[in-house]
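Q: How would the structure tokens look for this protein?
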Amino acid sequence: MRVIDLECGHTLTAATDEELFEAVRIHLDGVHSDAELSDDLIRGQIEKQAYEATDS
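A: Here is the predicted structure in token form.
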């Protein structure tokens, strides 16, 4: 499971980075529709910030 913690405080999860991208895009379009973030920027943030969920 891939996880990303967004700056707004939300945490999103998905099976793959591509699904995580889709979840981030949906979140941004729905909750932060005024944010103008390109797909490339979102993919770059996922590459840098997403991590693998671990059981603790």
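The two ends are 14 Å apart (CA to CA).

The helical segments are 17-31, 39-49.

Upvote if useful.
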